[in-house]
Amino acid sequence: MKKVLSFIFVFILFMVRANAVELDISSKNAILYNMDSGEVLYEKDADEKVSIASLTKIMTALVSIENIKDLDSQVVLTADDFKGLVEANAVTAGFTKGEVVTYRDLLYGLLLPSGADAAKALARNIAGSEENFIKMMNEKVGEMNLKNTHFSTVIGLDDDNNYSTAREVALIFKEALKNEDFKTIITTKEYTSSDGKVKFHSTIQSNAKKFEIDVPYILGGKTGTTTDAGLCLATIAKENDVNYMLVTLGALYDKKAPHNIEDAQTIYDYFIENYGNHMIVDKETPFAEIKVKYGTEKTLKLYPTKNITKYLENDYDKNDIKYVYDGREEITAFTKKGEKLGTLEIYYQDDLIDKENIVLTESLQFSIFEFAKENIVIILSIITVLVVIVVFIIKRRK
């Protein structure tokens, strides 16, 4: 028999509907993930196809890393790696023609200062040409089943055929983060090339410091800026043991402030201040008591098998979680340890959070006194019968 227990804990399960939160940001598109649970915490026009500027280089880095056998092998920069960059007003890492560097150097130059020279050098050395490398990028798009993404450049210059969405940039970013080299690079604040000639700094950290934007929780990421795309940003952050990933596109580009970093601060601060991980099921707290016949203890407390933590509002209430136990309400001292007693379902309102088997986790102590007390009539009857038999036998012998 299913019994909804009166023992109820309250919490508000955080199932933020992506558009429910309205924040004052200049970015036209945004998406925030809880990387621990995979849930989308916030989004704003996350599926609109737009220019993504140098966030393109996240895919450039991903394809590069997947096709480089040894990141410390050397390459030589040529005139082709710098061709057209000045005319396009593209940012460079600071490499020079004829310089001998490693693939690792190029990746740092690609992701920290967003060097277009590093992007072209990677494409040429890996695929033979920028055109061939772009084909590899779009093949990766197909592999990842990204329906609203296409690349026509390894750099991210404005082009009608180079576009994506906040959601799909986040998926590319998430895939790239699976690689430890990529994650190490984007979380590095400062790096000096292997030949000692060039020093790179994190654009995010330097801009945040310059404009006094307090974002200590941002671990790293990638910036992007063009006239059409505006200010773009992809970051990862961690605060209070919660891992976040945020992509913002199309922030105001007026050169007065890094509005993309300001928007990241606005979004992160809101969720850090208002939400967090909370343990809503404690395995040390019993959810029910059942009767024990013939035992030294008359009742047995039942416990959940594990702790359950959820990302919830910090001021969550404690009235909506229910334990539904379907199983035995009485056992005996002869019940064996490990025997299944029933099942426990844990609900928030009508949503099933967890279901687990409840088994006897301890050996029960038998009490002869409790057994006798429970069966006194039977015992007396047996004694009476035995006495009658003994008397009968004695009389017969006489």
Give your account of this protein's structure:
This protein has 398 residues and is of the alpha+beta class. Helices cover 30% and strands 28% of the residues. It has ten helices and 18 strands. A five-stranded antiparallel sheet has the order 3-2-10-9-8, with helices on both faces. A four-stranded antiparallel sheet has the order 1-15-17-18, with no helix packed on it. Strand 12 and strand 13 form a beta hairpin. The relative contact order is 0.15.
Give a brief description.
By secondary structure, the protein is α+β, with helices and mostly antiparallel strands.
Distance between the termini: 60 Å
Secondary structure category: alpha+beta
The ordered string of helix (H) and strand (E) elements is EEEHEEHHHHHEEHEEEHEEEEEEEEHH
Task: Give the averaged pLDDT, no decimals.
Answer: 90
Helices, strands, pairings?
Blueprint: E1 2-9, E2 29-34, E3 40-44, H1 56-66, E4 74-76, E5 100-102, H2 103-111, H3 116-127, H4 130-143, H5 166-177, H6 180-186, E6 190-192, E7 199-201, H7 203-210, E8 218-226, E9 230-239, E10 242-251, H8 259-274, E11 275-281, E12 288-293, E13 299-302, E14 308-313, E15 321-327, E16 330-332, E17 340-348, E18 351-359, H9 368-374, H10 376-397
Parallel strand pairs: 12-16
Antiparallel strand pairs: 1-15, 2-3, 2-10, 4-5, 6-7, 8-9, 9-10, 11-14, 12-13, 15-17, 17-18
Helix pairs in contact: 1-3, 1-5, 2-3, 3-4
